[in-house]
Write a structure and sequence with these properties.
alpha+beta; two-stranded antiparallel sheet; globular
Length: 79
């Protein structure tokens, strides 16, 4: 599985925004459909809340790719 680190400069990022920032979804509407359709795992569990807050260390998975949330300037641990 491919892992992509997504650095954020804020305390948290909402799930739909993470999917857009990482390029997993092109629009907010597409992110909403993906999340509400159960296509996204957050920290290993299905999540249907597109407003779910993810903080550094959390991860989301969809389409065979894991998106690891990291603090800006932080080097993520090896998978």
């Amino acid at each position: 599985m491919k892992t992509i680190s997504v650095p954020i400069e804020t305390e948290y990022i909402r799930l739909a925004d993470l999917l857009k920032l990482a390029g997993a979804a092109q629009t907010g509407g597409q992110a909403k459909v993906m999340v509400q359709g159960g296509q996204v795992l957050v920290n290993g569990e299905a999540c249907t809340m597109r407003g779910k807050k993810l903080r550094p260390g959390d991860w989301a998975e969809c389409g065979g790719t894991r998106y690891q949330v990291a603090a800006a300037g932080e080097v993520p641990p090896a998978p």
